[in-house]
Design brief:
Layout lengths: L1 H6 L3 H17 L16 H28 L7 H13 L1 H4 L4 H16 L12
Helix pairs in contact: 2-3, 2-6, 3-4
Protein backbone atom coordinates (compact mmCIF):
# COMPACT_ATOMS: atom_id res chain seq x y z
CA UNK A 1 0.00 0.00 0.00
CA UNK A 2 2.82 2.40 0.82
CA UNK A 3 4.17 2.15 -2.72
CA UNK A 4 0.77 3.25 -4.07
CA UNK A 5 0.57 6.10 -1.57
CA UNK A 6 4.08 7.29 -2.42
CA UNK A 7 3.68 7.10 -6.20
CA UNK A 8 0.00 7.91 -6.79
CA UNK A 9 -1.15 11.27 -8.14
CA UNK A 10 -4.57 11.47 -6.49
CA UNK A 11 -6.88 9.24 -4.46
CA UNK A 12 -8.20 7.27 -7.44
CA UNK A 13 -4.73 6.75 -8.87
CA UNK A 14 -3.51 5.52 -5.48
CA UNK A 15 -6.46 3.10 -5.23
CA UNK A 16 -5.75 1.75 -8.73
CA UNK A 17 -2.04 1.36 -8.02
CA UNK A 18 -2.74 -0.33 -4.70
CA UNK A 19 -5.24 -2.76 -6.24
CA UNK A 20 -2.83 -3.64 -9.03
CA UNK A 21 -0.01 -4.26 -6.51
CA UNK A 22 -2.26 -6.26 -4.21
CA UNK A 23 -3.67 -8.43 -7.00
CA UNK A 24 -0.18 -8.94 -8.43
CA UNK A 25 0.99 -10.10 -5.00
CA UNK A 26 -1.93 -12.54 -4.77
CA UNK A 27 -1.53 -14.16 -8.19
CA UNK A 28 2.11 -13.45 -8.98
CA UNK A 29 5.13 -15.54 -8.14
CA UNK A 30 4.15 -15.86 -4.45
CA UNK A 31 0.46 -16.62 -5.08
CA UNK A 32 -2.00 -18.01 -4.72
CA UNK A 33 -2.18 -17.12 -1.05
CA UNK A 34 -4.51 -17.98 1.82
CA UNK A 35 -7.72 -16.00 2.08
CA UNK A 36 -9.44 -14.37 5.03
CA UNK A 37 -12.25 -16.92 5.07
CA UNK A 38 -9.75 -19.31 6.67
CA UNK A 39 -9.12 -17.03 9.69
CA UNK A 40 -11.60 -18.87 11.98
CA UNK A 41 -9.47 -22.01 11.67
CA UNK A 42 -6.47 -20.26 13.27
CA UNK A 43 -5.70 -20.55 16.96
CA UNK A 44 -7.05 -17.68 19.06
CA UNK A 45 -3.81 -15.73 19.38
CA UNK A 46 -2.93 -15.97 15.70
CA UNK A 47 -6.52 -15.10 14.72
CA UNK A 48 -6.34 -11.91 16.84
CA UNK A 49 -3.05 -10.95 15.21
CA UNK A 50 -4.38 -11.49 11.67
CA UNK A 51 -7.62 -9.63 12.38
CA UNK A 52 -5.72 -6.70 13.89
CA UNK A 53 -3.62 -6.43 10.73
CA UNK A 54 -6.73 -6.80 8.60
CA UNK A 55 -8.50 -3.94 10.41
CA UNK A 56 -5.41 -1.72 10.05
CA UNK A 57 -5.26 -2.53 6.34
CA UNK A 58 -8.99 -1.84 5.86
CA UNK A 59 -8.66 1.52 7.60
CA UNK A 60 -5.74 2.47 5.33
CA UNK A 61 -7.70 1.49 2.22
CA UNK A 62 -10.72 3.48 3.42
CA UNK A 63 -8.38 6.46 3.94
CA UNK A 64 -7.38 6.22 0.26
CA UNK A 65 -11.05 6.27 -0.71
CA UNK A 66 -11.64 9.30 1.53
CA UNK A 67 -8.63 11.04 0.00
CA UNK A 68 -10.07 10.49 -3.45
CA UNK A 69 -13.45 11.88 -2.40
CA UNK A 70 -11.74 14.93 -0.90
CA UNK A 71 -9.61 15.60 -3.99
CA UNK A 72 -12.53 15.00 -6.38
CA UNK A 73 -11.11 11.95 -8.15
CA UNK A 74 -13.60 9.55 -6.50
CA UNK A 75 -17.35 10.06 -6.37
CA UNK A 76 -18.82 10.40 -2.88
CA UNK A 77 -19.60 6.97 -1.44
CA UNK A 78 -19.90 5.05 1.80
CA UNK A 79 -16.21 4.26 2.23
CA UNK A 80 -16.78 1.37 4.62
CA UNK A 81 -19.19 -0.46 2.28
CA UNK A 82 -17.17 0.42 -0.82
CA UNK A 83 -13.95 -0.77 0.79
CA UNK A 84 -15.58 -4.00 1.94
CA UNK A 85 -17.03 -4.66 -1.52
CA UNK A 86 -13.73 -4.06 -3.32
CA UNK A 87 -11.57 -5.95 -0.85
CA UNK A 88 -14.11 -8.79 -0.70
CA UNK A 89 -13.83 -9.23 -4.46
CA UNK A 90 -10.03 -9.07 -4.37
CA UNK A 91 -9.72 -11.43 -1.43
CA UNK A 92 -11.89 -14.02 -3.17
CA UNK A 93 -9.44 -14.37 -6.10
CA UNK A 94 -7.48 -17.24 -4.47
CA UNK A 95 -10.73 -19.20 -4.23
CA UNK A 96 -10.99 -19.53 -8.01
CA UNK A 97 -7.52 -18.69 -9.35
CA UNK A 98 -5.41 -21.82 -9.89
CA UNK A 99 -2.00 -20.66 -11.08
CA UNK A 100 -2.41 -20.13 -14.84
CA UNK A 101 0.07 -17.33 -15.68
CA UNK A 102 -1.96 -16.07 -18.65
CA UNK A 103 -5.00 -15.73 -16.41
CA UNK A 104 -2.84 -14.04 -13.75
CA UNK A 105 -1.82 -11.35 -16.26
CA UNK A 106 -5.48 -10.74 -17.11
CA UNK A 107 -6.43 -10.54 -13.43
CA UNK A 108 -3.62 -8.06 -12.70
CA UNK A 109 -4.67 -5.82 -15.59
CA UNK A 110 -8.45 -6.11 -15.46
CA UNK A 111 -9.44 -6.43 -11.80
CA UNK A 112 -8.22 -3.00 -10.67
CA UNK A 113 -9.91 -1.33 -13.64
CA UNK A 114 -13.18 -3.19 -13.13
CA UNK A 115 -13.27 -2.69 -9.38
CA UNK A 116 -12.40 1.00 -9.55
CA UNK A 117 -14.72 1.85 -12.46
CA UNK A 118 -17.60 2.62 -10.12
CA UNK A 119 -15.46 5.01 -8.10
CA UNK A 120 -14.92 7.53 -10.88
CA UNK A 121 -16.96 10.70 -10.88
CA UNK A 122 -19.37 10.81 -13.80
CA UNK A 123 -18.35 13.32 -16.44
CA UNK A 124 -20.84 16.10 -17.01
CA UNK A 125 -22.82 15.53 -20.16
CA UNK A 126 -23.15 18.43 -22.54
CA UNK A 127 -26.61 18.53 -24.09
CA UNK A 128 -27.25 20.54 -27.08
Amino acid sequence: MQLAIDSGQDGLDKVLRYLRNHVDFMVGERGPIAIMSEVPSLNSEHRKEVLKLSRKHSAAFEALLEEGIADGSIAPCNVRMTGNAIMGAVNWIPKWYHGDSAVAEQIIEEFPRILASGLRKAQAQIIG
